[in-house]
Amino acid sequence: MDDNLKETIKTTLMNLLNQRMRKIGRSGNMLWLCFGDDVNYVNYMGNLVTKPKYALHIQCNWEIIKGNEIITSCEDFYISNELIAELTDVEMFGNSKFDKISDNFNVAIETNPIHVINFSADKEGGFELELSNNHMIKVYPFSPADGESWRFLMPGSDEEHFVIFDN
Fold it and tell me: Torsion over CA of 123, 26, 132 and 143, rounded to 10 degrees?
């Protein structure tokens, strides 16, 4: 990759600066994070939808950190919330370690809001979001599987999604 990619990522992530993190969750083995105020729009099915203004969909290696402790990472998708065995069906919601952690995290950020206060990008398509309350999100693209590493979306906007693909 090159410096142009790094600058494009920084320009994209600039949208998140000072935005409140609203919620985290997953769809299968993809992490989704929502930021910003709610926006209303009509979706492709003609229904009025309300969603936060910005979203990140991450399907590569990532970590959410508080201080020096990893709160959760992509590996938690595959661990049973009972911590006794590997999770055999990642599509089964409520059974992974991540599901329990994200539920607790979402409750916590309702009463103790977290905002994006800084960010950095690298030449390989990765980035770090520095958050208030000593939190950080680190994204490391180019996992072993081919496909999409992560994307930045603005729900309800006509803007194209910004996507980083694995090599």
Answer: -20
Alpha-carbon distance of 25 to 60, in angstroms, equals 15
**Average pLDDT rounded to a whole number, residues 95-103:** 90
Tens digit of each residue's pLDDT (9 = 90 or more) over 139-148: 998 755 567 8
What is the C-alpha separation between 15 and 1, in angstroms, rounded?
22
* 52 closest CA partner among 31, 37, 33: 37
Beta bridge partners of 32: 25, 57
What type of residue is 92? Answer: M
Residue 76 is encoded by which pair of tokens?
């938690």
* Token pair recorded at residue 9: 């990522």
Q: Please measure the distance between the N-terminal and C-terminal CA atoms of the chain and give it in whole angstroms.
A: 10
pTM over the 0.90 mark: no
